[in-house]
Write a structure and sequence with these properties.
Blueprint (H helix, E strand, L loop, with lengths): L1 E7 L9 H8 L3 E9 L17 H16 L3 E7 L21 H15 L3 E5 L3 H4 L1 H16 L17 E6 L2 H13 L14 H9 L3 E4 L4 H9 L10 H4 L2 H8 L1 E8 L17
Parallel strand pairs: 1-2, 1-4, 2-3, 4-5
Antiparallel strand pairs: 5-7, 6-7
Bound molecules: zinc ion (ZN).
Length: about 280
């Protein structure tokens, strides 16, 4: 059985590649999701669902249900705390992921890779999709852990060395995403945008141009959307994603995008994109 490990920061991050996770989980693949935090400082869409004190616990349960919908077999937390958006006081909390000793986090990731022995590892691209500090740190630390996991001299206390075959960075193609949002606004389905991405457009286009693998998730699209809606504290009744019809969503997010990072892809792979992360 082939094995895939996805490494993200918060419950609901997995949704960005939810179709791919659901696809592989149904096709001879053991899927493990590693989530660094429990999203303790995220939104609370409805005060009946959680308080700031219980949000981490509630979001863990939401993620467990999302994993069931997607068919993800293994879920692991790094037990770090959500650092919040850049510049918020939550950044300074000593338990925050961004305050962690990088070697401790990398040691945890190396230990999990040696335990689950994935063939494929996926994490955020270096700008963390939209600049969330936890996403940026997890991209860096997961990428560095990937480079160390096969070396017996690194983290010898974290198990026998294991070398996965490929590392990918997950990309959200925000240019087509923005197009979808605009369509929904034009159609009178949603009002304002309420959606901002702090990445310079040129940088975003470069990231999108570097994509090497595109997975068609048509068959898993409903499952992906259903799994996202399990994150009720994040996607309340008024959330714009509940107001955009699935057909319109599918046109823009019916494919998921990845950059092969290791081994370095052959020249031209981004012009001739592959459709299977294991091929
Ligand atoms: Zn996140």
């Amino acid at each position: 059985m082939q094995k895939l490990m996805a490494i993200f920061a918060h419950p609901d991050d997995e949704g960005a590649m939810g179709g791919t996770l659901a696809h592989y989980a149904r096709n001879n693949t053991e899927v493990t999701l590693v989530c660094a935090t429990r999203g303790e400082v995220g939104e609370i869409s409805d005060p009946a669902l959680a308080t700031p004190e219980t949000l981490g616990e509630v979001r863990q349960q939401e993620l467990e249900r999302a994993c069931e919908v997607l068919g993800i077999q293994n879920l692991e937390f790094l037990d770090r705390r959500d650092s919040g958006m850049d510049g918020t006081p939550e950044n300074e909390d000593p338990r925050a992921l961004v305050q962690a000793d990088p070697n401790d986090v990398k040691g945890q990731l190396v230990g999990l890779m040696r335990q689950y022995k994935p063939d494929i590892v996926v994490t955020f691209e270096p700008f963390g999709w939209y600049g969330h500090p936890d996403h940026i740190y997890m991209s860096k630390w997961a990428t560095e852990a990937y480079e160390l996991v096969g070396d017996a001299e690194q983290f010898p206390e974290s198990g026998a060395p294991w070398q996965p075959k490929r590392l990918y960075h997950s990309v959200i193609p925000f240019s087509s995403f923005r197009e979808m949002i605009q369509q929904a606004i034009d159609a009178g389905l949603i009002e304002g945008d309420g959606f901002s991405v702090d990445i310079p457009e040129e940088r975003q286009l470069q990231t999108e141009a570097a994509v090497t693998h595109v997975i068609d998730i048509d068959a898993q699209f409903d499952r992906k959307q259903d799994s996202m809606m399990e994150h009720k504290t994040q996607f309340g009744e008024d959330n714009m994603f509940r107001k955009i019809p699935r057909d319109m969503m599918k046109k823009m997010s019916g494919h998921e995008h990845f950059i092969q990072v290791s081994p370095t892809p052959e020249d031209g792979l981004s012009q001739n994109r592959l459709t299977d992360l294991f091929s």
